[in-house]
Amino acid sequence: MTAVPVSGADSRLRDYDTGGFWDEVFAGPGAVRPHYAALAGQMATLSPEEVARRQQAAEYSFQSRGITFAVNQGSEGVEKIMPFDLVPRLITAHEWRQIERGLEQRIRALNLFLYDVYHGQRILAGGPVPPELILGSEGYRREFLGVDVPRNVYTHIVGSDLVRDGSGRFYVLEDNLRTPSGVSYLVENRRVLKRVWPQIFREYDVRPVEGYPQDLLAVLRDVAPAGVEEATVVLLTPGVYNSAYFEHTFLAKAMGIEMVQGSDLFVDDGSVFMRTTHGRQRVDVIYRRVDDDYLDPLAFRADSLLGVPGLVAAYRMGRVSLANAIGTGVADDKAIYAYVPDIIRYYTGEDPILPNVPTYVPSRRQDLEYVLEHLSELVVKSVNGSGGYGMLVGPHASQAERAAFREKLLADPRGYIAQPTLALSRHPCWVEDHFEGRHVDLRPFGLFGGEVRVTPGGLTRVALRRGSLVVNSSQGGGGKDTWVLGDPPDVSQESS
Amino acid sequence: MEKAELGTRRRDWSRVRWAIFRVCQRYRYTYTEPATDIRQRLVMVPPATHGEQSLLDHRLAVAGAGPDVERRWSEDDFGNKVCVVALPRVARAVEFEATFRVRKQRSGQPVPAGLGFAQAGRSLLAETALTAADERMRDVAAGIAARTDSPRERAELAAEWAAGAISYRIGATGVQTPAALALHLGLGVCQDYAHILLSVLRRLGVPARYVSGHLPGEGVPHAWTEAIFEAPELPGGAEAVAFDPTHRRRTGVEYITVAVGRDFADVTPTSGYFSGPGSGRLSAERRVEVVQVAESEGVVAA
User: Fold this and answer.
1) Nearest-angstrom CA–CA distance, A397 and A417
2) Contact B181 A367 (CB under 8 A)
3) Facing residues of A38 across strands?
4) First to last CA, chain A
5) Chain B residue numbers touching A495 (CB-CB < 8 A)
6) Is the model's pLDDT at A275 over the cut of 80?
7) How many CB atoms lie within 10 A of CB A3?
8) pTM for this prediction
9) Which of A58, A87, A93 is nearest to A191 (CA)?
10) Residue B262 and residue A353: Cβ atoms within 8 Å?
11) CB contact, 8 Å: B24 with chain A?
């Protein structure tokens, strides 16, 4: 692959410092990767005032549509817009093929794993995952042993996080199999960028992402209980205090389905109904954005006010479908994540197409020793945590923080995993009046209703603070529109 | 029978000027239920040339999938020969059998790396997740760097250190074990030796690549490490020197290269996917035969 020199006029691009990281745009100082050449040309024609003006227009657009998320800070929720960076992130057709196939393979294997864990449990007898990790996982729901789910689909919606290392290779950093969020930004970022910078779209063949809500609806309908035609699908939200509430309203509206809270639903004679102004209406499929623990106070946490009493019994009897299924947490437990490549080999006989980030599992004694000795170099995460809470970034942590994690690890080795601190790839972002490299990740979304469909795009999250490696929106991360490019005219060229 | 004896006989490879090897490698996938739309990406056949090795002929047979087998050959970013096989349907089992013959010679002359030195610097210096250096490797690299400025001497010292850094043991590590953990355990297999050496070489500023291949007489595939040095007199301007830290030696004429990459993850021999309700099982088999050998009278200097 040959890089294209930056046109002489623009010093902002010529002076850009890749900082020794894998840069998505620059192959080296002043050398733009070929698929970014047209974009770099356009960037070079924009004055700082122009960029600032478009950036502001984008922010207004998000604000006026109410595209916000809530940050948990004590008891008070704070509403924020996710900072948006104007420069889109581009993924070539070649790169995308690997991502798409890799996710397809992974999602299929994880569903075979979940089916096995809740049925024959073949994997417990000499399989590659230590049985105590599976049976001791917080996400494992013993009560669902032997319960069938439509089409044996457990994870209808998957939002895996991918990162690139210093050599540019993609890795799966984690699988989000419970209630992954962020897809509304994927669609909205595209809408906003089209509005504030329409010119740039003319230069590229960008694959559309707008079909996601309809694809999701098709999957939800497909997994309706047997015998149901014209399924009634609803979205169950925990309510306005949830950080992804905007997304719930966005998806319900885009799919043309009702958005409900627990108190809008009730169970009668084994079936689930929603209260409407015209009386009760039977519900067949619930796209739930409420965690397992809060779904049904009769089955799980008795203090939950978000759930529906009797829902789990109705689900067990096959009267209503839930997406994602109950009990998927056992497959996105971060300690079990470490074994996903083995899980892929075990159930499909295939080698993983997308590699895992090497992961230390401190419940193995040798790993614990290694982790304790190398805390200053590793990222340590809680196995059931998400959103960037409860993690230690060793190289950026203070002595006291590391000491605190040492205690936690010794007290509960099963509760944590550790990974090497990857030199995540960077992408130029507009910072005040110039471009600076910021670390990015990629969260594509896969839908599974028997066939896997990965929306060609994803949420590129940006660690906006200089040098930061944490991209979560709750931790000050921003977003970029993400373009998957169509096949170049010469398709015969598989590699570059 | 005769060939098998030829292959397993103890031989002094340092006396061999050139040899022809025949490698046969087979992967068999068995499915519990019929599978459709199968795609396998196979990296089982070496590129046309790699250093002093040239491919004489090769065959990739697919059995068990009927006549509609589509094979598409291409080259990946590292020059490896990749075959993507598409099969519409497999009832029970499919078998991929790659057979190839290579001629390997040893001239004693520097071996061109097959890529430019600048390119090697761009693609083979960056840390990958499997080869990320930890504090101990950084210290080792710093110690070596303090002793000499010469990249070649540094590589020799690094290879010498890597050979003694861990003890050979099967089962202590797996295909995903990072170099840093293998080093911490003090145990590993050829893949771990190769990764540890890669890690320190890159830390020393020496571009280096992972090599997967075969050795006659060994039951499992082997792996080693190539360091890349600037060599203006060679085509491409770069020389590759291969170290086998598992055996604490430079590689010889009997080392058959199949693929190279940044680390193990780049050279996975099989990967793919299929549709269908069942699951698959993979089994593998391989055989390396020595077809023909030319020995010299004297020992050729390594």
Assistant:
1) 17
2) yes
3) none
4) 5
5) 74-77, 82
6) yes
7) 16
8) 0.84
9) A58
10) no
11) no
Task: Report chain A's C-alpha Rg in angstroms.
Answer: 23
Per the CB < 8 Å rule, is B128 touching A373? no
Q: How many whole angstroms separate alpha carbon B65 and alpha carbon B275?
A: 14
Place of tokens 């994927």: A186
Contact B129 A369 (CB under 8 A): no
Residue A156 confidence (pLDDT): 98
Residues of B with CB below 8 A from A342's CB?
174
DSSP state of B214: E
- Asked if residue B213 lies in contact with residue B81, where contact means CB atoms within 8 angstroms, the answer is no
Chain B environment of A420 (Cβ under 8 Å): 129, 132, 134, 178, 180
Question: Is-contact B263 B130, C-beta < 8 A?
Answer: yes
Rounded to an integer, what distance in angstroms lies between the CA atom of residue B141 and that of residue A270?
67
Q: At what angle do helices A340-348 and A93-117 cross, to 10 degrees?
A: 80
Q: How far is B285 from chain A (nearest CA, A)?
A: 15
How many Å apart are CA A134 and CA A123, to the nearest integer? 10
pLDDT band at A151 (very low <50, low <70, confident <90, very high): very high
Q: What are phi and psi of A4, to 5 degrees?
A: -105, 130
Give the tokens for residue A405.
């994690």
Q: Under 8 Å CB-to-CB from A52, ≥6 apart: which residues? A: A433
Looking at every residue in chain A, the average pLDDT score rounds to 89
Q: Which of A167, A356, A374 is the closest to B176 by Cβ?
A: A356
Q: ipTM value of the model?
A: 0.71
Q: What is the pLDDT of residues A470-480, one digit of tens each?
A: 777 666 678 99
Residues 6+ apart with CB under 8 A from B216: B7, B8, B21, B254, B256, B288, B289, B290
Contact B61, B69 (CB under 8 A): no
Q: Which chain B residues contact residue A358 at CB under 8 A?
A: 129-130, 176-178, 181
- Whether residue B177 and residue A22 make contact (CB cut-off 8 A), yes or no, is no
Contact (Cβ atoms closer than 8 angstroms) between residue A324 and residue A155: yes
Backbone angle region of A413, left / alpha / beta, with phi > 0 → left and psi within -120 to 50 → alpha: alpha
What's the CA gap between B134 and B252, in Å, rounded? 31
Closest CA to A220 of A211, A230, A210: A230
Size of interface A-B (CB pairs under 8 A): 117
Instruction: Select the residue from B271, B281, B282, B283 to test the A interface by mutation, using most A Cβ atoms within 10 A.
Output: B271
Q: Do B273 and A101 touch (CB under 8 A)?
A: yes
Question: What type of residue is A51?
Answer: V
Task: Give how far the C-alpha of residue B120 lies from the chain's centroid of Cα atoms, to the nearest Å.
Answer: 17
The reply to whether B270 touches chain A by the CB within 8 Å rule is yes
DSSP letter string, A408-441: HHHH-GGGEEEEE-----EEEEEETTEEEEEEB-
How far apart are alpha carbons A425 and A445 in whole angstroms? 20
Interatomic CA distance for residues A70 and B245, integer angstroms: 54
Contacting B residues, span 56-85, partner chain A, CB-CB under 8 Å: 72, 74-77, 82, 84
Residue where the block lists tokens 């610097």: B121
